[in-house]
Design a protein that fits this description.
One of its GO terms (molecular function) is ATP binding. The chain is an alpha+beta fold. It contains seven helices and eleven strands.
Length: 255
């Protein structure tokens, strides 16, 4: 309930405070073990200077960083170069929408094991933290505005035949104007890629069905959490809508 969310919020705030960097310090991506990247087969020195740690997650850490040559400030996620990283970059490049974090680029480190995913900076925190702040639920007008914009973003993704598969308050960031932005698409279901992969199961991809049990269990649809049988198919687009409904409930009830 509210107390659980508030407890999570306090714990997260403490972690964020412990991870903050001195903004005045001169940190470079060399400090993070990435000194150069390769793009289209060419090598480049990293032209980014981190100015603050935004958070850490399962895939890696996210820093606010300034592009030295242009002064542009972006969010830079340092992570392993794996299927999830490539999926996130492809999903973001496919789904361009005002309520989806804009992809700036994906830099592959020359060790071929790490990468830096660059997106627009959303520096007002997670929607989760805003829900915790209000405790008893967001004001109706605010919840309505967030819900409309997030729904519009998901509708756009589904029109592109991409399902997010991890819709939750922690995966919605707020930009400097307070606008919500969907992020973290490493678990996305990209239908045309599944169909082209030559999966042995004709229902996967070509008919828009998924089998992988992914996402956050508190937001996941029943057919994802408790499939009828091992490897049972489910509609990832419908599962997104269930998660969106849970998110709306959290916004209105604060729990």
């Amino acid at each position: 309930g509210v107390r659980v969310l508030a407890s999570w919020g306090r714990a997260r705030a403490a972690r964020h405070a412990a991870m903050e960097l001195d903004v005045a310090a001169e940190h470079t991506f060399a400090d993070c073990g990435i000194r150069e990247v390769q793009l289209d087969g060419c090598r480049y020195e990293v032209d980014l200077s981190p100015i603050g740690l935004l958070g850490k997650g399962f895939q890696g850490e996210v820093r606010a960083a300034r592009e030295v040559s242009s002064g542009l400030v972006v969010a830079a996620k340092l992570m392993k170069l794996d299927r999830r990283a490539r999926t996130e970059a492809r999903a973001l490049s496919t789904c361009v929408h005002p309520s989806i974090a804009k992809l700036v680029g994906l830099w592959e480190a020359t060790d071929s094991e790490h990468c830096v995913l660059l997106t627009e900076l959303c520096d007002q925190g997670e929607l989760f933290d805003t829900i915790v702040e209000y405790e008893a639920g967001l004001p109706a007008d605010m919840a309505r505005d967030f819900f409309f914009k997030i729904t519009s973003a998901l509708s756009h993704m589904h029109d592109k035949r991409v399902a997010h598969r991890d819709v939750k308050a922690e995966n919605v960031l707020l930009d400097s104007r307070g606008n919500p932005k969907l992020i973290d698409m490493g678990l996305a279901f990209i239908e045309h890629e599944m169909a082209a992969s030559g999966a042995s199961d004709p229902n996967v991809g070509r008919r828009g069905l998924a089998t992988t049990k992914v996402g956050s269990m508190m937001y996941a649809a029943p057919e994802v959490v408790h499939p009828r049988s091992e490897g049972a198919h489910y509609d990832p687009y419908a599962a997104d809508m269930w998660s969106l409904g849970v998110l709306l409930y959290c916004m209105l009830q604060g729990q």
